[in-house]
Every structure is written in C-alpha cells, then in structure tokens.
Amino acid sequence: MIVVNKVNKSFADKQVLHNINITFEKGKVNLVIGRSGSGKTVLMKCLIGLLTPSEGSIYYGNRDFHHLTFSDQKALRNEMGVVFQGSALFDSLTIEENLMFPLNMLTKQSFKEKLDRVNYCLHRVDLYNTNKLYPSELSGGMKKRAAIARAIAINPQYLFCDEPNSGLDPKTSLIIDELITGITHEFSMTTVVNTHDLNSVITIGETISFIKDGVLGWYGTKDEVLRTENEGLNDFIYAQPITQKIRDFVH
Amino acid sequence: MYSMGIGSLIIVMIVSVCMGSVITLQTALQQAESSWIPAWTIGYTVRTSVILELCPTIISLLLVGNLGSRITAEIGSMKVTEQVDALEVMGINSASYLVLPKIVSSLFVNPALIIISIFFALMGGYITVLASGFITGYDYIDGITYYFIMYDVWYALTKTVVFGFVIASVAAFYGYKIEGGALELGKASTKGVVVASFIILILNLVITNVMLN
Ligand SMILES: Nc1ncnc2c1ncn2[C@@H]1O[C@H](COP(=O)(O)OP(=O)(O)OP(=O)(O)O)[C@@H](O)[C@H]1O
Ligand SMILES: [Mg+2]
Q1: Is A105 in contact with B92 (Cβ distance < 8 A)?
Q2: Structural domains in chain A?
Q3: Minimal Cα–Cα distance from B183 to chain A, Å?
Q4: Is residue A205 pLDDT above 70, yes or no?
Q5: ipTM for the complex?
Q6: What is the distance in A from the centroid of ligand 1 to the CA of B156?
Q7: What sign has the CA pseudo-torsion A105, A109, A111, A114?
Q8: Most buried residue, A48, A171, A244, B44, by CB count within 10 Å?
Q9: pLDDT 10s digits, B18-57
C-alpha cells in the first residue's frame, strides 16, 4: 500500500501538485487519470523518488520514502519496477542485457539464475526469440512489453507505469492492460498506472484518481466512473465524439 | 573506448597526413630562397611544429567536433528518452555511471590518437619531400631526428591528456544537462563544441606559457 499524504510540488514559482491525498491499494491496479499537463507524471516521479515533494509525505507501508536514510531509500527502490512513458530501454544493450541489467545491479544471483529469470519474464510478457535483439529492432508494443518485463525482473512489490499504452493500437493496448492486471494480481503488487486511455479506465481501473490541474478532483472505481456527476471528470471522459455518441445512445 | 577511438581514427589519419604535408611544403618554400640554410632545418621545423602545437591542438579541436559531439548526443538522448531516469530508479548514480567512463577513456584515447597523428603528419611530410624534391628524403629524416628532445613529447602528451579531459567532460556536461525534447540535442552539441573549443584554445595558451617558459 502506498499513501500519498498532503503532497505539494512546485517548480520555481509554478505549483504543479496541490495537496494530493491518495491511497494506492495493494494487489490492485490503481489508475491516475487526467488531461495532458495535469501533473500525472510529476506525481509518479515523486512516488518513485525522481522528484522530491515540496511538502507532504509518501508512505510505503510505514516507511516515509522521502525521509528515509540513503541506504533505506535504496533498499526501497529495489522493490520498485518502473515502466516509463517511452519504454526507456537502454538502446546500446540487447533485450536480454536490458533485463539482466537490474539483476546485475541489485542482486547477487548467479548468471544461470539471472538468465532463467530473464527468460521467465520475457515469456510472461509473451516475448519469444527477442533475447539477442536490440530495442530499435522491436515494434512499439514489443518495446512496451520488454519494458514491463524489465520492470518485473527484480520481482518488485510496487509497479509504476507511465502511460503504458500511449501510441499503441486499441488491440495491443488491451493486451498490455491485461498483462499489467494479470501481473498485479498474480504477484499481489501495488500497481500505479498513469493513463488517459478511456478503454483502460473502464476495464482495469480498480481504483481511479482523477487529477485536474494538479488537484485530486475525483476518486472511485471503474464501475462508478461512467455514472459520475463530477463535472471535470465528465468533461474528461466525454471529450471525444465517440464517447459522446455512446452516452447519448445509452440515455 | 574502442568505439570512441576507432570512429575518429580514419579522419585523424587523413587530417594528419594533409597537415604534415602542407607544413612541409610551406617550410620548404620559405627556405628555398636562401641557399645558406642547411637542408635538415626543414625536417626539424616540421617536427617541432607538429609535435608542439599542430597535432595536440588541431587534432584536439577536431576531436571536440567528432568525439565530443558524439558523447553529448549519446548521453543527451539517454536523458531525453528517460533512460537516465531508469538508471536512477535502479539506485544507480547516473552521472558517475555514464560520465566517468567517458572521461577515463578519453584520457587514454586522446593521447593515443595524438601519437598516431604525429606519426602520420611526419609521414605526410616525408611523402611531400619525396614527391616535390626540394630536399632528399635523407635530409628530411636527418632533420626530424636532429637534436631530438624527449621533453617535447611529454609536453605534447600533457596537453593532450588535459584536452582529452576537457573534451569528454564538457561534452558529457552538455549532454547531461539536456531537458526536454530531441530538438535540444542539436543545440546542446553545438554549444558543447563551441565551449570546449574555446576552453582548449585558452588552456593551450596557458600550458604553453607554463611548460615552455
Ligand atoms: N521539471 C519541471 N520543471 C517545471 N515544470 C514542470 C517540470 N516537469 C513538469 N512540469 C510542469 O508540470 C505540469 C504537469 O506536467 P506532467 O508531465 O506531470 O503532465 P502529465 O499529466 O504527465 O501530462 P501528459 O499526459 O502529457 O504526460 C506541466 O505544466 C509541466 O509543464
Ligand atoms: Mg506524463
């Protein structure tokens, strides 16, 4: 479980996050949704420690991440897997080396153990015969899957995905969504996913936090999201002609 | 390190041969008018200018554009595509992980390339001498070996180690500093090249003053 407690984040004189309070639950896919520029990535970077909140705290269980000692912070980081918006695979390394990398850095396993783990993770995301390929030789969807495989290589308790299906076709998106949900339930991870993909919102959002201009505007589940009276959230969901058509059809 | 040096090797060789050739031609033309200057002075002058100034400085400036901009692009693109962030969340200090190896290898690669460059420049001179016939090849060899001072080589190597450090660290700094998109990459490389070239020219003056006075 991750608890975000009264988090503010400002850059110079620009405040991006305003008093954010959210609980991300264990064993669930927790979505953070909102328009472009609303502060989703900034919030995620605060969660994983790439940014420090200007005020407030982030608790992992009972550990206050930003007030831990350096070595405790490092230990906590070993429990996190992160899938970045652009995959962020190391392009000078093969897919196998990419997955091997966190294992080399963070564990003391033998080469054989590491290789087994790498192959297990690649198969888990349905990547076969890609071990010796370079990221540039994969399609966008395959890269995303490789990035997910790298994130779960160290068997993390916390999984973070920043827009895992941006730039993918609807079908591939769905596969990625199912994969993230499957992994989350299988390993009982606390998963946080940033997205503005409506399909994901209504299919995998076990908890949904809607951020508008850096403020938490709504919190609920995928079953509640379509019936909300919240104006900001309605604007967000029914921004596209297709969703408007569906709404008109249903009513 | 291998990839850092090899990419620049061919261009360094070509430039060095041309440089040696031109400087030999110039020296020979100046001295052709006065018959009382001994023939070996041509080789001697070529050797001195090549070792002391031309190779260390010009090749370093060349490497700023070649090696340096490559380092900026490599680190910069890792920054823009969040690969640096990926390193950081794995608990790795990305600055030292990415930058230090570049600086260390540059400290070795740069002097090695300069030594190769000196060799090829002197070769270029030799070819020119043979082709133009101002003096005999024997006179030239005599000149470049005449009164050889080892200190000159140390002086050249000192310069190149310092310049190597400047090339890698400035390039890495500008690459690492990039925020935002791919557009910033081009700007950062250009800026890195200008700043590193400037620093090298200034340091060249300083080192020359300190070591040769
Ligand atoms: N390092 C920074 N310095 C200054 N401002 C920043 C910085 N990072 C983000 N911001 C600002 O914070 C705001 C939120 O950005 P953020 O990247 O979190 O948006 P987002 O919700 O992830 O959008 P998208 O869906 O497009 O990824 C933006 O206005 C952005 O300009
Ligand atoms: Mg974002």
Answers
A1: yes
A2: 2-79+159-250 (3.40.50.300), 87-155 (no CATH)
A3: 17
A4: yes
A5: 0.87
A6: 49
A7: negative
A8: A48
A9: 999 999 988 888 877 776 778 788 888 888 888 888 889 9
